[in-house]
Design brief:
The protein is of the alpha+beta class. The chain contains twelve helices and 30 strands. Strands 3, 4, 5, 6, 7 and 8 form a six-stranded antiparallel β-sheet that branches. Strands 9, 10, 11, 12, 13 and 14 form a six-stranded antiparallel β-sheet that branches. Strands 15, 16, 17, 18, 19 and 20 form a six-stranded antiparallel β-sheet that branches. It is rod-shaped and about 160 Å long.
Length: 568
């Protein structure tokens, strides 16, 4: 069998064979595609540039005459324009990245009967074992493949924007050269300002936060002939799998989206108000960085006084209690380029979903709204009165804290006795039986910064009140008062049987008669028997179980003398 027929049969079953048989002469290259990728998005065509590794051997003895592997530098050339030997120009056609071929080149398509430079002898059949690493064309543009995109995209990247993105960077062959994920930090840069390679500056335009793209960048829009250190070889196409995390523009202001406003909002926040609000804090990609709900505690602060970041200080003005908003704050109004440790990265846009619980001003008074007042309202509550009332106590967002309905009986108190918070004392004053009120009590009239029980610190309280019963009281320090002028002289009136002495039973009968006839009043809210007993004991100076006129006079004289000393 002649040599040419042998080669024809040997390569007949190869993946691709370019061979003809003429009388005893190999007239074309022989291509053995012995390793072809399953996916081949692009094949080499005339005028394409290629970057490949090869081992070159002689067919006759297998001896190596050249190798790009030995130089640790892939070979770069253009196909089909005579920059390669003709056999390679033909043998590389239709090749895929990561494909391996064995290309056998006859002498007339290699270095002919002359050879070259003492390396290739005349009439040598050459065998090139090739691994294709890269393909590009001078007409190529950045190739953009969108992997995923959020359903809602309110903003896309534009030139002069500042962006934060994650990426995996590989060569076209799949070999990784860099990854932001391995550093656990986004790549942060301005877009369209020349801070990136041209291909990225172009490929990152028009992206939404949360969008994923694959960008294929030809070498002349990447690092070109020089490459990039040891990471990116010269003339390498680059593949970036990109996730856009954040975008803003240095000219951006706050973005405020009103989600919910309660009906009947009559007051809005302003500078120097104190506010309590809940929030969820996220980045633009939706990942959370903080939440007051997780701590089960509102965030409390003054507004417009520099206690919070500038953007939040501005955004917290003009809100109603109960209002819900989404606030998007660019980094120059948040934590800037420095961020906050590992908590908030530098140049991060912050998204706050807030719910205003309540707010107040340190100068706020107690607010009283009468919702029902009986027509017959001649007697109203005042200091020292003993009252019975029902109530509901809530936060301003409607959260019920306490209610008299939770107990077996209504609440009672003596006004002016410091038995309830100051704001409630004021809200209960001036009421007539059957009157109903709504009372708003700021914390400085309530439980202050520390709160109490179920009442959070600095909470504004909302009370719904109804006065159920009113017993007029007596001044502080007194157990009994005359309603008008008392008997004069007093002792004969007390001495019911005129025996010149008044035991406790007689004294008690006298007092109760005066009360029943509307001439006197005991301190309300205290057991009458106990009060009368205390009154009797105060007058029974010698503790013999009865009061005489001398004892009563002596007590009067002492009180008069004490009053005179007080005046002095």
């Amino acid at each position: 069998m002649d040599l040419i027929l042998f080669w024809f049969l040997l390569f007949l079953d190869a993946s691709r064979v370019i061979v003809t048989r003429s009388s005893g002469v190999l007239v074309d290259v022989v291509v053995d595609r012995y390793d072809v990728p399953k996916v081949c998005p692009r094949e080499v065509q005339t005028e394409d540039f290629v970057r490949y590794h090869f081992n070159g051997t002689f067919y006759a003895d297998g001896k190596k005459f050249d190798s790009s592997h030995d130089r640790s530098r892939a070979f770069v050339s253009q196909v089909g324009l005579g920059k390669l030997i003709t056999g390679m120009d033909r043998g590389l056609q239709g090749m895929c990245v990561n494909e391996r071929r064995r290309i056998t080149v006859p002498p007339h398509l290699a270095y002919g009967s002359i050879g070259t430079g003492g390396v290739i002898p005349p009439d040598a059949v050459l065998v090139y074992d090739v691994l294709l690493l890269d393909i590009w064309n001078a007409e190529d543009k950045v190739e953009i493949r969108t992997i995923s995109k959020p359903a809602i995209c309110n903003r896309t990247t534009a030139a002069s924007d500042f962006i934060r993105y994650h990426y995996n960077g590989t060569l076209l062959s799949g070999e990784a050269f860099d990854s932001s994920y391995s550093r656990n930090a986004t790549y942060d840069t301005y877009l369209g300002q020349g801070d990136l390679i041209k291909g990225l500056d172009e490929g990152l335009l028009g992206m939404c936060v949360g969008e994923r793209r694959v960008l294929i960048v030809p070498p002349f829009l990447a690092y070109g002939e020089n490459g990039y250190g040891t990471l990116v070889p010269p003339q390498a196409s680059l593949v970036f799998e990109v996730l856009l995390v954040d975008v803003f523009n240095p000219k951006d202001d706050l973005i405020v989206e009103v989600k919910e406003v309660p009906e009947g909002c009559t007051r809005r926040t302003k500078a120097r108000d104190y506010i309590r609000y809940h929030y969820n804090g996220t980045f633009q990609d939706g990942s959370a960085f903080d939440s007051s709900y997780q701590r089960n505690s509102t965030y409390n602060t003054y507004i417009g006084m520099g206690y919070v970041i500038k953007g939040m200080d501005k955004a917290l003005q003009g809100l109603c209690a109960g209002e819900k908003r989404r606030i998007i704050i660019p980094p120059h109004l948040a934590y800037g380029e420095g961020g906050v440790g590992d908590f908030i990265p530098g140049s991060a846009v912050l998204v706050f979903d807030i719910h205003v619980i309540d707010f107040h001003n340190p100068k706020d008074p107690v607010q009283i709204k009468v919702t029902h007042r009986p027509q017959d309202c001649n007697v109203t509550s005042e200091a020292d009165d003993y009252i019975q009332y029902s109530y509901n106590c809530s936060l301003m967002d409607g959260t019920l804290l306490y209610s008299s309905d939770q107990y077996d009986s209504s609440s009672t108190t003596t006004l002016g006795a410091n038995k309830v918070i100051v704001g409630l004392e004021e809200g209960l004053s001036g009421m007539c039986v059957g009157e109903r009120r709504e009372v708003v009590i700021p914390p400085h009239w309530g439980h202050g910064e520390n709160g109490a029980g179920e009442v959070p610190g600095s909470a504004v309280l909302f009370f719904e009140l109804e006065l159920l019963e009113l017993q007029k009281g007596v001044p502080e320090g007194y157990m009994f008062v005359w309603l008008g002028d008392g008997p004069d002289p007093l002792f004969p009136a007390m001495d019911l049987n005129s025996d010149k002495e008044v035991p406790q039973e007689e004294f008690s009968s006298f007092i109760m008669t005066e009360i029943s006839q509307g001439r006197g009043r005991l301190r309300p809210g205290v057991d009458a028997h106990s009060i009368i007993k205390d009154m009797f004991n105060n007058q029974d100076r010698n503790k013999d179980g009865k009061i005489t006129e001398d004892e009563l006079t002596l007590k009067d004289d002492e009180e008069t003398k004490q009053a005179r000393r007080d005046e002095l």
